[in-house]
């Protein structure tokens, strides 16, 4: 790689490392694995940099690479059914209102535990749609599938989320009664 | 609305993230070195193959046998290739095989349910004396970038043996997914978290191929994984994997490990070659 390309790649890595890790964490539920995924994704991006360096939708390509790395990871048999729901960290919340803190912590814990049990591709769709706030078309582009698949996986993912919450006996009051967006 | 709660929950889940555990600059430097080294290795390997192939071709063209005697060539030598398939009797992907029709999600889910119904009886035919035997759901997922899927069904059996809870996992890959060939499956993957200790490819009497593979963890060599992969002539690949630990974890970091994996090569092979497992 030429030095100016390497400098641009380095700049991209500095800017994207944290958002990539956040995104990866929501897919895998483990900060350490999320960092591994980010570094794997950076390796793939480095190899393909000559092809994508001028792309207008670099962010989309970056997300797509993280998704690919995550899906590759879950396809490994010894990874596929690992239970990561036990690693939700107890973290300090800096908000002064104890009730709001408790409510947020409860929602966060509930979402992470439920998300960990949703099939991996549905989880990817939910994170892209509801965390990255991508449109159906952008989600389809990031996943390399059709918009119809995104809609169906999104609906199915939300249904599964409700089912997991109901089945696990967790406090589901915050997440009941909603319907899927079209 | 669940969408709003989901958005809030996702934002909250990353609101107290720990500091980045690696320096992006250092990571890019390391990646650059690794990629350049890998490219250099491939270039050297290609050059070696070309030189060896060329030497063999020259040797054959002058009729130099192993004994060193020079034979008089009475007919032109056949064209030589610089690479030779290590399994000349098994070609993968199966030549001339048309990819099957793409399954809808509902069709794939229905096949997953069918597999879930048969997996326990098939397991119990091979493995006796286990308790709490339960089928795991077979999820339909998508493998590879070239097919929109679904093209894989993944599930298994959970059970308890003398050491505790564990599981055997079963993956059924449709012919729509370009599954790596047997030789590739046995090749060392530097990015994998395990290292092969045994990897054998056998051609079966019906023309299919079977790979038996045993691997240990690179970080923890005490973890042993054994898989049987059946490469079928309809393009389907079935992988059955057993462990000497509990692959489902269930949040218990300290697990008892068995001396060997919970299924033998023979038992894994019997399940992997069972035609009830297909997609």
Automatic annotation (TrEMBL), chain A:
Q: Which family does it belong to?
A: Belongs to the sigma-70 factor family. ECF subfamily.
The cross-references to Pfam families, in alphabetical order and at most eight, read:
Sigma70_r2 (PF04542), Sigma70_r4_2 (PF08281)
Q: Which UniProt keywords apply?
A: DNA-binding, Sigma factor, Transcription, Transcription regulation
In Swiss-Prot or TrEMBL terms, this protein is called: SigE family RNA polymerase sigma factor
Q: Which CDD domains match?
A: Sigma70_r4
Q: Identify the SUPFAM superfamilies for this entry.
A: Sigma2 domain of RNA polymerase sigma factors (SSF88946), Sigma3 and sigma4 domains of RNA polymerase sigma factors (SSF88659)
Question: Where does the RNA polymerase sigma-70 region domain start and stop, copy by copy?
Answer: 20-79
Q: Which residues cross the membrane?
A: none
Which branch of life, at top level?
Answer: Bacteria
Domain named RNA polymerase sigma factor 70 region 4 type: residues: 109-159
TrEMBL record, chain B:
Bilayer-crossing residues are 40-58
Q: Which branch of life, at top level?
A: Bacteria
Keywords tagged on the record: Membrane, Transmembrane, Transmembrane helix
Q: Where is this region: Disordered?
A: 1-21, 69-98
Where does the record place Basic and acidic residues bias? 1-10
Q: Does the keyword Transmembrane helix apply?
A: yes
UniProt protein name:
Uncharacterized protein
Provenance organism? Allokutzneria multivorans
Q: What is the lineage of its organism?
A: Bacteria, Bacillati, Actinomycetota, Actinomycetes, Pseudonocardiales
